[in-house]
Amino acid sequence: MDRIIERPRYFSRIQPFIDKPLVKVLTGVRRCGKSTILQQLQEVIRAGSADPQVFAMNFESADGLHITDAAALLRRIEAENLNKNTRAYFFFDEIQQVADWEKAINAIRVDYDADIYVTGSNSRMLSGDLTTHLAGRYVEFLIQPFSFAEFVELHRQSDRTLSEHFQHFVQFGGFPALKYFNLDREPSLDYLDSVYNSVVLKDVIEYHQIRDVDIFHRIVGYCFANIGKTFSAQSLVRFFKSEGRTVSVDTVLNYLEFCVNAFLIALCQVVVNGFGC
Q: Is 220 within 8 Å of 264 (Cβ atoms)?
């Protein structure tokens, strides 16, 4: 049986918004633990109310795959015959799979006495679309993979020292599913490669309809090879030129932004002479 790692740093921020008239949006890279937190929130609500109305759906599950647009989602909810005048709790996991999902969320908010929770893996889609349709009516929480403390708790039953745990954490990171591979190098790296490919394919290449996939992979590879170093879009353009490839500064900037939006990379603010840049 899987052991659930408590994540109080997120619950302490989310709990004050339970039963408040704001859509709770959990964003973060795929497989970082958003679904588990969503399940834990359901358990908290079920434990705190007598027979609450709860509607939950994971759009990557067999039940959710056939729901591809807002109209289909609303029909599915209507079929539940929920009492619209009694508080109902809605949990939608990986909702970006549903076209025009934000319109469905807004309709649910208007038509039901609703407390709504959603997760998604693309910050541009969630922030941009929500700003358009739910301006001022949502609050966003960024979920990260496990911290080092959470990583140690996950693997505390092993006989590794704290120093060994730290070396593995630096090497593999904090994705929860790494527990299934006992931190063995080859299967752990294979799993991380599959997560990377999933993020790149679903949340970047498909979502943004990128045509020059080779250039995109080269840009990401350059970023990964230069972690901890400062570089500019112009320096990337010069790098590709030295390899006989032509790419514009705008293309580099767009691709980097797509990666940031998919939580594949993150920007670090550099302070120079007291000014952030």
A: yes
Predicted TM-score (pTM) of the model is 0.85
Which class for 180: exposed (0-12), middle (13-18), buried (19 or more C-beta within 10 A)?
Answer: exposed
Domains and CATH numbers, the chain: 8-142 (3.40.50.300), 210-277 (1.10.10)
Q: Are 7 and 150 in contact (CB under 8 A)?
A: yes
Q: What is the pLDDT of residues 2-59, one digit of tens each?
A: 678 889 999 999 999 999 999 999 999 889 999 999 999 999 999 988 889 999 999 9
**Cβ within 8 Å of residue 130, ≥6 positions away:** 23, 25, 102, 138, 140
CA distances 276 to 14, 226, 271, 272, Å, are 30, 21, 4, 6
Q: Do residues 114 and 146 lie in contact, with contact meaning Cβ atoms separated by under 8 Å? A: no
CB 37 within 8 A of CB 131: no
Written as six digits, the tokens of 67 are 């729901």
Task: Find tokens 């954490």 and name the residue.
Answer: 169
